[in-house]
Every structure is written in structure tokens, then in C-alpha cells.
């Protein structure tokens, strides 16, 4: 799982963050200053890249948070069998399987053997994002 750290105060909408050990796309950030002796807090709302679940985290703005490193690459569909898709990575020609639940909705209808797809490798999870 490849991640790096960033300050919670530097997180912006549209960026990615790890919430509950799942990579999430940030959809809302609220920063609030607390009382006289308190520290500023950031409320970050994200939607899971892999599962689409909405998650929320509240942390001090100076706290370190994990940011996933997203690796994008092209793969070719070898076969489709029921609940999984077998792919070949076009960088090193290794084959691997992805469950059907890890396929973006817009790409589901377009998959057939021989089609090239864009795959995101995020924190150890692989997901088909679109066809090429």
C-alpha cells in the first residue's frame, strides 16, 4: 500500500485521502476555528474510490493524514468469466484478475476480450476506470 503524508489543512476538494484505510475522493472540506485555546479542525468528507461509500473524518488542521499514491496503467482484457475479469498489464505482460464489483459503471457494458482499459492501482486495490 503506497501512501504519503500531508497536512489535513492542505487537503482540497477533488484530492484523494485515506479514510478508514480506504482511498477516498474528497468531495467536501470544512475548516472551523475553535475556542480560545483550541486548535482549528478540518471536517473532510470523501467517497470511496473502490466501493463508493461516503466517509467522514474530523481532524486538527495541523494533523498528518495519509494520501494514497494512484498508479494508472493500461491493460488488455483477456477473458470475462462471471464475477471476474482477467487482464494483462501492457507494461510487463503479467496477468491478474479483478472482481466485477471493481469495475466502473461506464466501462461495464464495453468490456470484451481484446479491449484496452485504464486501471487504477490505489492502495493495493485495482479498479477498471474506463475503456480506451
In short:
The chain is mainly β. It has one helix spanning 105-108, and strands at residues 3-7, 16-19, 22-32, 41-48, 54-60, 64-68, 70-81, 84-89, 95-99, 116-122, 125-131. The chain has two domains: 3-68, SH3 type barrels; 70-131, Nucleic acid-binding proteins (OB fold (Dihydrolipoamide Acetyltransferase, E2P), Beta Barrel), CATH 2.40.50.140.
Description:
- The chain has 132 residues and is mainly beta.
- The chain has two domains: 3-68, SH3 type barrels (Roll); 70-131, Nucleic acid-binding proteins (OB fold (Dihydrolipoamide Acetyltransferase, E2P), Beta Barrel), CATH 2.40.50.140.
- The protein is 3% helix and 58% strand.
- It is built from one helix and eleven strands.
- The chain has one helix at 105-108; strands at 3-7, 16-19, 22-32, 41-48, 54-60, 64-68, 70-81, 84-89, 95-99, 116-122, 125-131.
- The strands form three sheets. The protein has a five-stranded antiparallel sheet with strand order 9-8-7-10-11. It has a four-stranded antiparallel sheet with strand order 2-3-4-5, with no helix packed on it. A two-stranded antiparallel sheet has the order 1-6.
- Strand 8 (84-89) and strand 9 form a beta hairpin.
- The longest helix has 4 residues, at 105-108.
- The two termini are 26 Å apart.
- The model has no long low-confidence stretch (mean pLDDT 91).
Amino acid at each position: 500500500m503506497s501512501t504519503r503524508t500531508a497536512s489535513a489543512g492542505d487537503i482540497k476538494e477533488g484530492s484523494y485521502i485515506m479514510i478508514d484505510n480506504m482511498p477516498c475522493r474528497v468531495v467536501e472540506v470544512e475548516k472551523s476555528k475553535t475556542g480560545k485555546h483550541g486548535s482549528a479542525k478540518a471536517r473532510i468528507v470523501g467517497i470511496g474510490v473502490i466501493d463508493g461509500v461516503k466517509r467522514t473524518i474530523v481532524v486538527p488542521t495541523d494533523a498528518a493524514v495519509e494520501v494514497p499514491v494512484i498508479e494508472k496503467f493500461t491493460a488488455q482484457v483477456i477473458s470475462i468469466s462471471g464475477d471476474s475479469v482477467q487482464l494483462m498489464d501492457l507494461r510487463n505482460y503479467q496477468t491478474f484478475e479483478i472482481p466485477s464489483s471493481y469495475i466502473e459503471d461506464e466501462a461495464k457494458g464495453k468490456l470484451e476480450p481484446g479491449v484496452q482499459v485504464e486501471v487504477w492501482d490505489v492502495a493495493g486495490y485495482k479498479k477498471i476506470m474506463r475503456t480506451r
